[in-house]
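Late entry, evening session. Most of the bench is empty. Finally got around to the prediction I had been postponing all week. Sequence below, unchanged from the version circulated by S.P.
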Amino acid sequence: MNVEMTVNGKKVKADTPPSLLLSDFLRENLNLTGTHVGCDTSQCGACVVHIDGVSMKSCTLLAIGVDGKSVTTIEGLAKTVDADLHPMQLAFHHNHGLQCGFCTPGMIMSAVDFAKQTPNPTEDDVRHWLEGNICRCTGYQNIVAAVLAGAAAMQTQAGG
C-alpha cells in the first residue's frame, strides 16, 4: 500500500505492507534508529514519536494509519540538523536522565508533549505522566528531575 507522510519536516512516500508497524517503517525504511523496536511489551514507551504534535507509541500503530500525517522522531526534535539540542534533550543530559539509553528517546518525546500540556508540572505530575514509559535501569529520580528542568526550560524559551 502506498503511504505518504511528513517525517521530521520532510515528505516521505513509500510502498509498504499493510501490516507494517510505524516503528519498523521508521527504522527499516527511513533509518531513523532512535525509535526503538523489539521490546517485549507495548508498555515500555521506547518507541514514542509525535504524530501531529501528540506523543504516541509507534509500535502500536500501522504505518498506513499515519498516511497524510506529520511525524516527529527524536532525530527531528531539534529545529534543524545542525541546531543545538532541544531543551528537553539538554535537560536529560545535564540531569543524567539516562543510563543505557534504550528508553531515552521515548522518555524525551513523551516529556516534550507533557511539558507543552503542563507548563509548570510537579514531581507527582511527571511521575503520573511517565507511568507508561518503562526504564529498566534507573529509579526514575534523574528522569523526573530532567523532565522538570526541561519543562522549565521550554517555558522560559516560550516566554512564559
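Two things to note before I forget:
The mean pLDDT is 88.
Strands lie at 2-7, 10-15, 48-51, 54-57, 70-72.
Will write this up properly tomorrow.
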